[in-house]
Design brief:
6 strands, alpha/beta, 7 helices, six-stranded parallel β-sheet, 196 residues, 33% helix, Rossmann fold
Amino acid sequence: MMTQASVGQVPDPPTCRFGHELGRSGTCPTDCYTVFKTLGRFYNHAELIEQRQRWQREGKTVVFTNGCYDLLHPGHIQTLEAARSLGDVLVLALNSDAGTRRMKGPSRPIVAENERVELALALNAVDAVTLFDEETPRALIAAVLPDVLVKGADWSHFVAGREEVEAAGGKVVTLPLEPDYSTTNVVKLIASGHSS
């Protein structure tokens, strides 16, 4: 199991089900991406901060969002596409398995972090993926300083990193949630034995 280190530390990279490093061209000799074609790239925190500086020099607008993204559903996809439309690059910071357990309870996540990274890297809207262990990605956001910070409207009462982004001249956007989509509700539905 891979864990994300603090900002600036280099964690072990996430791997696919065959043990090959995700998001790196040419690291999979067995072509494990026949199911999921990797479109984005995984970055540890230090790499992401360095890449952010390159994007800034290139004049690209960087959008940042975060979440567990456990049991990926159409609401997630629509939110990520809406976030991506706000700039040139979308960074998705995923809660680690340990962080997801602390937030959602001992039965979560249902999909392990390596698999959630793999799924996120296969999404057209996502350009960069990283993991974080902390309760919030505030320190990471302060280090990356995206141009646009995005959260779902369910978090409008508290957006970690808001102060840092706005102080640097960036903006914070809360997107409306897609009705009828919730990982928690899907889990409850499955546990009850009912279908949708």
